[in-house]
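Repro:
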Amino acid sequence: MEFTAYEEVEVKGRYYLLVHAGLGDFSEEKLLDEYDVNDFVWKRPDWDIPYFTDPNKFVVVGHTPTLGINGKPEIFYKNNFIAIDCGACFENGMLACLCLDTMEEFYV
């Protein structure tokens, strides 16, 4: 079984980079293969600094519950980041899923 630290997906003309946490020391000029696995798994993004200037490129992350970002158990969107960890392990958290085809949100 092969482990990948990220996945690249294109859906309806939009490009999504799926990672666990973010990209440590991000640079738009840096190739994804140049990052260490720890950059994908542990380094949280700065929500105020977008990774990409292209409005059709998004980074989908987990690792940081949205309860700790905006205080709400719902999918968080900012600067082409999509944070989907809605804190299911917490009493007031939710398990979230986002359909990239329709951008419809699902919660349990």
